[in-house]
Write a structure and sequence with these properties.
Helix 1 packs antiparallel against helix 2. With 130 residues, this protein is mainly α. It has five helices and no strands.
Length: 130
């Protein structure tokens, strides 16, 4: 069951990213997009096992695999949401670049990532949300 409270935070962060994008605050938009995707994946996967945490880059694999909405999907099979693996990994990399390396990212890339995060949230809603 999707944690709707976390998914609402993901949506708020996505809204913030859109606003930042409109004001040409591209680095800040990337940061909000990253945390939007992270909260959305956490909402889908649920709380990690006792004593564990969802590590930032490691959360992508279980999310993409899709057990959270199809527990019968074979463990060795490609992920049911494989189309998001590379874009989510790239989003993580872009967040590191803007937050720690102070690199500029193009508007086209940020727009593409807004679309990706929007699609991820939509997929979560359609597969496990209310």
């Amino acid at each position: 069951m999707v944690d709707m409270s976390r998914l609402q935070y993901a949506q708020k962060y996505l809204d913030d990213a859109r606003l930042l994008f409109e004001h040409k605050r591209l680095g800040s938009a990337i940061s909000r997009l990253y945390y939007s995707s992270y909260q959305a994946m956490w909402a889908a996967l649920g709380e990690p096992a006792a004593g564990r945490i969802w590590k930032h880059l490691a959360i992508i694999k279980p999310f993409v695999h899709g057990h959270w909405f199809n527990p019968d999907h074979p463990e060795q099979a490609p992920g049911l949401l494989e189309q998001y693996r590379l874009p989510l990994r790239q989003l993580y990399t872009y967040r590191i670049k803007v937050d720690y390396e102070l690199q500029e990212i193009s508007e086209a890339v940020v727009k593409s990532l807004i679309d990706t995060v929007t699609d991820v949230i939509t997929a979560i809603m359609s597969k496990g949300g209310a």
